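Incident log, structure service

09:12 report received: a user says their structure output differs between two submissions of the same chain.
09:20 pulled the input from the user's history:
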Amino acid sequence: MADLSELEHGSAEHTLPAEAQAPVEVDVSSLMPGMSLVVQWRGKPVVVRNRTEQEMKDGQPVNLAELKDPIARNANLPADAPATDANRTAPGKEAWIVMVQVCTHSGCIPVGQQGDFGGWLCPCHGSQYDSAGRVRKGPAPENMLVPAFQFISDTKIRIG
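09:34 re-ran on a clean worker, output below:
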C-alpha cells in the first residue's frame, strides 16, 4: 500500500512520466450536491464529490474513538490531525471531498455511495468508508488518502 509520502513525492521504484506527476486542475462547476467525478492524478483515481447536506450532517457526530483510523490522512494538514469530518475537507469548502479512491486494504477501487455508511464500499473484501472517506468497517486499515489540493477559484480545484 502506498503511503501519503509516496503519493505526494512518488516512489523510487515506480516513476511516472512528467505529465502524470503534474498537478491536475478540475472544473467542478457542473457538480451539484450529491454528484461526483473521478480524475486521474499520479496514476490513481481521485474522486471529487460535492456532498449533500445530509452527507455532511451524517459525518460530523462521529466519535473518533470508534474509528478504525483516527488520523485524517490529509496531505493539507499535519500528519497527526484527527479524522474529523472537517479535517477531511478544506476550510470553507466542507461540502467537497477530494480523495484517492483506492481501498487501503488491497488497492481495489471502492464503489461510491454504497455500504452501511453511505460512502464507499470495496466490493473485493467488504471494507466500508463513510461520506468523508473514513474506514468504518472491514479489513482496510486506514482512511482513504486526501491529496494536496486547493480551490483556485469557486469552480476549479488544483490537485497536487
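09:41 both user submissions now match this output. Likely a transient worker issue. Closing.
09:42 reviewer note: The longest strand covers residues 35-41. The two ends are 19 Å apart (CA to CA).
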